[in-house]
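The passage that follows is intended for readers who have already worked through the single-chain material. We present the inputs for a multi-component assembly, then the predicted structure in tokenized form, and finally a short commentary. You are encouraged to pause after the input and sketch how you expect the pieces to fit together before reading on.
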Amino acid sequence: MKIAFRLARRLTIFLAAGLLPAISGQSPDPGAIEETFVSGGGRVTVSLSPSLGQKPAEVLAWVGLAAKAVTAYYGRYPVSAVHIFVAPRAGDPVNSGSEHVGRIIIIRLDPEATPEDLKRDWTLTHEMFHLGFPSLDRSYHYLEEGLSDYLEPLARARVGQLSARKVWKDFIEGMPNGLPQAGDAGLDGTRDWGRTYWGGCIFWLLVDLDVRQRTKNARSLDDAIRAMVNAGGTGGSDWSLERVMDVGDAATGTDSIHKIHLLLGAKPFDPHLEELWRKLGVREERGRIAFDETAPLAAMRRSMTQSKNPALPLASTVRFWRWSPWATAATTLPMPETWSVRWAASR
Ligand SMILES: [Zn+2]
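Having made your guess, compare it with the prediction:
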């Protein structure tokens, strides 16, 4: 989830200025700890609530996995610094993740969540991808959520955290949630959960496939997204849709983002997913994924879950431990109920 509404953004910047403990009325908890490590040149500071059911080392290992996947995708960490607040809350093993202004991630762990649960988690990687894409007008929120949904499994597969079969199983089972229903007016301005998360995911899949087909698989969505981050398009920046399309398309030498937006933005569009899976050479039979390597786009499908930078250096150095007066206060930030509901329904 990305908290991108103007008021929320201003509030979070205000809180991030260091005033959070004072205005939240909470006294600092002497048991809270904070640790910083570096991944791909980005400073990742983790504040751990003393009430967590997990050992600090387990939580830090989990944060390290997400940082590794995102760093490998961009070739570096997408922002110079991020502060991650981890607090307990009963629910899914990992729940209520949210990213704020490209600087802060707040996320909660069920007290019973095990190291295996954390190893399987996708939520934190999803939130970290919000750091590496600009904030857009509310009408294009689906581009923000859809991109995090699309890149998270691909990035985790590329560093060996997820199998290609699991990536395609989730895409095949999830993407029908993003198809237009009767009365749909296109993705622009949608408030529907399925259209926002999975419709946005379909949008970026179609962009990725279009770029790969037109460049004989030499370029991909990766080039577009990296170019945006290199142009300052991080979660803390406000961009127009036009800028996203212009910078992204210039990087791939295509007009793919413009084209897919024309198709999906203002009117319902059926991407014919079954036909797409057939061309990519992937099908689900009785819950199992089978690949057809003779399919016309099989090579493209394989390269989507393979890293081009397997030897990327991934420094992950523990810097220091210290008392964190923010940890308890920050994680009590109220979450808009509508988003909690929508989030609970997602995947
Ligand atoms: Zn999100």
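Commentary: Strands lie at 2-3, 33-39, 42-48, 81-88, 94-100, 104-109, 282-285, 288-291, 321-323. The two ends are 12 Å apart (CA to CA). How closely did your sketch match?
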